[in-house]
Amino acid sequence: MKFLEAISGFFGRFMALIVLALTILALFVPASCNWIATSCVTYFLAVAMFCMGLTLKFSDFVVVFTRPRDIFIGCVAQFTIMPLLAFALGKIFGLETALLVGVILVGTCPGGTSSNVITYLSDGDVPLSVGMTAVNTFLAPLLTPAITYLLLRTTVSVNVLSMFLSIVQVVIVPIAAGILINKFCGKFVQKFTKILPMFSVIAICLIVTTVVSHNAAKILATGIIVFVVVILHNLCGYACGFGLAHLLKFPVAKKKALSVEIGMQNSGLATSLAGTAFPNLAMATVPGAIFSVWHNISGALLAAVYRRLK
Fold first, then answer.
1. How many CB atoms lie within 10 A of CB 47?
2. Which helix (H) or strand (E) holds 129?
3. Cβ-Cβ contacts under 8 Å for 211 (sequence gap 6 or more)
4. What is the Cα–Cα distance from 16 to 302, expressed in whole angstroms?
5. What's the rounded Cα separation, in Å, for the pair 94 and 310?
6. Beta-carbon count within 10 A of 10 CB
7. Share of residues in the chain with pLDDT > 90 (%)
8. Which residues of the chain are under the pLDDT cut of 50?
9. Which of the two ends of the chain, N or C, has the fewest CB atoms closer than 10 A to its terminal CB?
């Protein structure tokens, strides 16, 4: 077990570099990774969500009731700032329909599973981060399809029911299962908590490499614009989250949590939804794949900066 814990620690510390290295491999040597079927992305995401659920307890949701104002502000910010930024950036840079769909899907998804880890590494308000992630994730089946429809209805047909069912299947059910197992088999689960991050990182790596390898030619053909949009989307999310928290006179720890939670998206879910809800728009999976790589790199760098902010 000590050996596995050491490996898990390695994965946690160097997640950004691991994801980047595998992305470069998948992008320039796609044959090394495209033997994994794209249909597996959904299962990889479910594994990551299940591992997250195993680390949660019903007590983690107490913050929802003890600090409802903070959670409400975080939820409203999550489902307004990132979708509007995605829509604005997509229009400003004139993205083609499929890429616009992909960027907006990233924006309408809840906070990423890595946000809690980055908040912890930033010396931020971890309970607030966990509470926001949990609530936003459970609101996602309703809000993600609804906001996507509102933003895209004049551009492309949106299968709202398909998106709702996909989120329930690959996010809500695995997380709920993890929480219940942790509730009734807590002592057993406790033995493995230190190695759970390893499985989440592996799942994220598999999602990224699968999507990138199957779309390598398309990603390379999109040019620099989609990379610029994805990076700006993420960085503007961090800045808007921190700025909003500053205007509301939050303490520093809360500012960090809100910034990270808003800027880091569940891009794995966005990639999965792009494939299931928009099967005729293959390029829609590209922004989610790029975001998955970038936000892990930017998050690690941001944590290093935020640790110095007291």
1. 19
2. helix 126-152
3. 38, 41, 271, 285, 286, 288, 289, 292
4. 12
5. 40
6. 13
7. 30
8. none
9. C
